[in-house]
Amino acid sequence: MNPSTLIAPPALVRRAEQQDTKAIQALDSAHYLHPFTDHAGLASRGARVITRADNIYVWDSEGAKILDAMSGLWCVNAGYGRKELADAAYQQMMTLPFYNSFFNTTNVPAVQLATKLASLAPKVGGRSFEHVFFSSSGSESNDTNVRMVRRYWDLLGQPQRKVIISRNNAYHGSTMAGASLGGMGGMHAQGDLPIPNITHIEQPYFFENARPGESEADFGRRAAGWLEAKILEVGADKVAAFIAEPVQGAGGVIIPPETYWPEIQRIVDQYGILLISDEVICAFGRLGHWFAYEKFGYRPDLVTFAKGVTSGYIPLGGVMVGDRVARVLIEKGGEFNHGYTYSGHPVACAVALANLELMERENLVGRVKDDTGPYLARRFAELKDHPLVGGAETCGFVAGLVLVKNKATNAMFDADLGVGMICRGHCFKNGLIMRAVGDRMIIAPPLVMTHAQIDEMMALIVRCLDATLDDLRSAGELA
Ligand code: PXG
């Protein structure tokens, strides 16, 4: 097949869904290795071809309109079709499409963005974030964190502090360090991971890990205590840092009890270890704040970001470096032998600046905090009455529910049934993108969503839960 026949001339781009789905799928299977994909399975089904998007909707090559309740992959915070972001990229490409930040050079958008991010990062407990290190993704940013944390302790004459503690079911990316920091068993099983000096504690998932009768508050404190136990097991003088997502995203929207983060802060302070807040999903309004550590009131030393900083329009990530680490690196460190070709990419930084400006102008962060977030919380809580739903919680504009076999006992379905995937199938059929993580169904909608669109999404969710319930009843899995 000649691939050139598939390249639509510009005039046709807006009607790209009229392209030949089967032909695209055949070339896709022949040449394109996708992330986290069973390619033999994909080849037999054929990939869904997404061709265009606007506001909170995407369209596929068959012309189906789908409400994207996952914001692409937790990133299209400002919604699709924002001309300002395309204009910013175009203007910057025509002015300076690339220059590096090595060898004593800099560029204006990178400087402006670093300055802007420093002004947006809230000061907590007298600590501020005046410095930023740029990368192109969350994974690269967490690799940067590992290198920075090790360098920090070396410079302070404590090179034995190497161990970074993370959590089971965390997601911190897919590079060697990112996958090792993450707590995904399936990732560790492929390729001898984690790399040395990374260890994990249990996640603060109340539904799964609480004791019978235990209150959320007690569970939160007990779950944080697993960090202290691990520090003592490893040896306090060997622990370099603790890394965690404010709310676990890819793990299934695991929202910690309110008592969790204050106790984590007490523990990292007591043992003097660095705290890394991985906010690749949670920053830039996702939880109703520019940075999520503000919501939970803790004081990280390093903050990982990516995704929402550009609303996903162009790859950009980085690390907000707090004063404690920055001072040591800058004053004692000499040259830090680390960096990427695209660190501070002028086009990515220009798009990020336009995105942050747009978010400020439309008060997207404040809306999620005070208006649409609370409205989503109210509507999502109604799902608890559904016969399949064992629990339903939101935090800002992320939400998760768990599908259970028995609401009284919270008994789960046999994992082999793949109930979450059945539900996800109904979502696609009904024009809704919702993710399944095991039997947890999760959403992270674009922050531009209105009340009416939240209602539209909720109606679709209920329809898909009902269809899943019908399937399970027909299969004899439920009374
Ligand atoms: N940290 C966190 C908290 C993330 O959510 C990364 C790091 C890695 O970012 P990059 O840009 O390298 O992908 C992420 C990414 C999912 C899913 O299945 C989530 C992510 C990526 C891919 C899939 O929910 N998050």
Write structural notes for this entry:
The protein is an alpha/beta fold and 479 residues long. It folds into two domains: 48-78 and 366-474, Alpha-Beta Complex (Aspartate Aminotransferase, domain 1); 88-361, 3-Layer(aba) Sandwich (Aspartate Aminotransferase, domain 2). The chain has 18 helices and 15 strands. The strands form three sheets. A seven-stranded mixed β-sheet has the order 4-10-9-8-7-5-6, with helices on both faces. Strand 8 (274-278), helix 12 (292-296) and strand 9 (302-305) form a beta-alpha-beta unit. Helix 10 packs parallel to helix 11 (260-271). The longest helix is centred in the last third of the chain and has 24 residues, at 451-474. The N and C termini lie far apart (51 Å). The model is unreliable at 8-14 (pLDDT under 50). Bound molecules: 3-[O-phosphonopyridoxyl]--amino-benzoic acid.
